[in-house]
Amino acid sequence: MKKNKSVFLLSFVLASIVLVSCEDSIDKVNSPIPYESIGGYDSSDDVAATHLVSKLSFDGNIADSKSGVTGGVGTNVTYGTGIKGEAYQGSSTSFIAYANVANSVINLKHISVSMWIKTNPHTGGAQSIFMLPKKTDFWGNIFTLIEGTGPATTMLMKNHIQKDVVPSIPWAGQFIEHAGANVLNNMFGAWKHIVWTYNGTNSTYSLYIDGQKLALPASISKRYASDPLTGGVGYGELANSEVSKFIIGGYQQHLGSPWGTPDGWMLNYTGLLDEFRIYDSALTDNEVTALYKLEKDKR
Description:
This protein has four helices and 17 strands. The protein is an alpha+beta fold.
């Protein structure tokens, strides 16, 4: 009986050693499975990496990891759950003022602005997501606005790119406006990835929603001083000037001098904003799609 017990114990010990040895061998042989690349990229920061001039992730802070805008001071800033980590949570009284703007942003000739937003319909005016101010121009150099639409499922969005000519790049006055037949559908109540680009070489504007390029009429996509079909000349490269500061969630008028107080319709952005990026190039279709998929995958 004692002999059988000894044999049993010895067999158990040997089996345990073999099992542990096998597990160690498996651990050494099997390395973690790498992520599959998307569009040729492993990370969102790999997309057009040499052209990224500003990146605001809002992971508990307002710092720009690319230092295109610095010296940020937040007013009533809070954070919510983002598409990646945390996100800027706007409100009717919150905004961020950056005191310094790098030449990499000031001297943009072409541009792509990428952001994730999650917001709801509003009334009473237009909410500003961001603005690159101009000291002597009421509208600043560059911005993105969301017009108040009331309780609807469509979003009226305006983007603006300033030229040192008169008039500014035209569409509905000074703006590139997504309204009427070009209104943006199903944009509220969920995270939406927005990228808009301007290529100064061919004076072309594009807009992407969730990685998909919208089919836009020439009246929006071609930024010409007159009809390009009749020999009109494109506006060419961007020409930002008299840049002072940078603002998230408000208008340059919220920054005080040299601007006056905001008009009543100038509303702070009240939604969530995450992974805000500025590039000094017009991203390609593949780059935009890859950026959307990688950020959605928290990469």
